[in-house]
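Database export, one record per block. Field names are fixed; values are copied verbatim from the stored entry.
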Amino acid sequence: MTSIQGIAASSGIAIGKAYQLVSPDLSVEKVKIDNPEKEIDRLKNALELSISELEKIKEHTKKSMGEEHAEIFSAHLLIINDPELINPMKEKISNDKVNAEAALDEVSKMFVEMFQNMDNEYMRERAADIKDVSKRVMAHLLGVTFPNPALIDEEVIVIAHDLTPSDTAQLNRQYVQGFVTDIGGRTSHSAIMARSLEIPAIVGTKEITTTVKQNDMIIVDGIDGKVIINPSDEELDTYHTKQEKFAKQKEEWAKLKDEPTFSNDGEQVELAANIGTPEDVEGVLKNGGEGVGLYRTEFLYMGKNELPSEEEQFKAYKSVLERMDGKPVVVRTLDVGGDKELNYLNMPKELNPFLGFRAIRFCLENEDVFRPQLRALLRASAYGNLKIMFPMIATLEEFRQAKDILLDEKENLVNDNVNVSDDIEVGIMVEIPSTAVMADQFAKEVDFFSIGTNDLIQYTMAADRMNEQVSYLYQPYHPAILRLVNNVIEAAHKEGKWTGMCGEMAGDPIAIPILLGLGLDEFSMSATSILPARTQIRELSKKTISSYKDKILSMGTAEEVVEFIKEKTV
């Protein structure tokens, strides 16, 4: 029995035979050719076959997983149709008189290296997309079979160096019990898709493909991030029991689907979900969400060649509001920049885009983009309980300017006899330390706060959460973070306002007791985290944990906080 530790990307226990998802040999021999036209035709044919496959995968993904995940393949289709990528291949064939395989290999590697060396995380991720697309085209040129996970027809654990978006989208939940990869993190495309499919997954093991052989018996512990290879009978018995316990736990969680969220001393909070598309609402309702705490509208803008129209946005917002049937829906206005770029907007290249021209800063300078979104939201407000939230607010002036534009568009719509709700709360995301420090002033003017801990933590600790060398500083339980969170909550409550949290921290089992004790009103998280969080909160006494607040906030390290919370709540 061998044990390997990785990153738990999707919860659950899976037991089964290893299925090595091995890429074919795509090694290339550079050959001088006499007929460039023939090679260009071969390239065109390989591109057309690849485009046809990608369109089928996109449609399959849209039906099985929703529009958001299908947009990944819209990006792949944009790449494979991009003249800036394809024309240099044709030119190399014509000018250097080389075979199509060599032209594809050299040009794609050049672009991959260029993207990998960019400072922007989003652009670096595009390098993986170019690799994925290029491999598919190369397989057609070489006449070899490209891996097709959709053809798996027996219960297996998929083992791979990495799972591309197209691989993961084709996984058949009926047969694929789980997967393990050498590389990746919790925020990679494959990990996000695994959680959507509720397939146990472990990523970032570094060595799974060199340690596991085809048909080895594998246990995937997606709860603790542990892989066991060729377990003993005793280990199998232990994990079968753990698997049954997890299944029963899910059944117990499901009983709370339609229950409100109360602590064991009768204090009520709200558990909401973070979503990216209207299709995600199904998961919110299935998991007992009491609202949508964060609707990331940028997915409407991504994977396209142009801005979504006001009408397209209106239909999306209306759909979510209607399906939530009166439950609150907090919609974040466009948050692009940082790691989310839209090529068609020609945004400036920046040395540090996370601290640059993004989110509300971009929208206030581009009212032609901002106003149609606000109009679409205002029109949709008549169909449900809408709350509008501005991201990346650093100053009161920014909030006032954004709200003035919103009220201006509301007046225009009312003058045009368009039905608009008179009960729309307008709030801000608190993700910049200065805003958290000045929360007492913001609280006089906003209707609510929603704390975006993903950015608040990295800005407060001056540590890029994507940088492995400083990842140890990404500390959600650090007293500095907790003091800022407490400051925001207290400022809101003093003005009779509410505070939510929509960062990853809101669904963290260690953070939940702390946040309950600090008085957080709304916890917004991934849909699959709602029922476990509700179960946990029902076992906690808010009054008792609140009595520890001063002690927790006076601690010196995150480790002290974690140790104390575990001692008092486990």
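Remark 1: The first helix runs from residue 36 to 65.
Remark 2: The chain has a mean pLDDT of 89.
End of record.
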